Amino acid sequence: PLELTKELATEKGYEVDTVGFEEANKAHQELSRSASAGAFKGGLADSSYENAKLHTATHIMLAGLKKMFGEQVEQRGSNITPERLRFDFACDHKLSPEEIAQTEALVNEWIKADIKVAREEMAKEEAVKQGAEHQFIERYPDVVSVYTIGDVSKEICTGPHVENTGVLGQFKIKKEEASSSGVRRIKAILA
To answer: For residue 47, which phi and psi values (nearest 5 degrees)?
Structure first.
């Protein structure tokens, strides 16, 4: 608490910048309100164009990982900033350098194909019936947005996306590591 901080600081011969504290506290409260209102969903820092590109890349990366390792590969979380994506997924082994290169090649092949990203609204049950990927289905409303990227990917999602894969640039995995037991983490960029 501010009062206790001021008291302890005075005992040590320091002054507390209460004006600066109040300004920082207001900024923090505003950010918390935005997050509570759902402004930053799906692990996204914001809805900028760079984040939309990286978010779209996570969809095709997941599709690539499923193609390589099977349907048991599932998303376990993500965090996307304008600089990079971080993607956690269920996998029973560390990816070899060859598997990383294969994943990059597959994602870049789909980027180069300049595939249209289509959005459609439908009942949640219908989306699941159609095989749309989803995580935490109970958190979604009764009507959901489904993003389809050609025959590559179909996911229930709330995040921003680009209109076609061709704008993504070059996909590059910078790091692959353990996140927790049975969960791997990929950090990647678009160049």
So the answer is: -110, 30
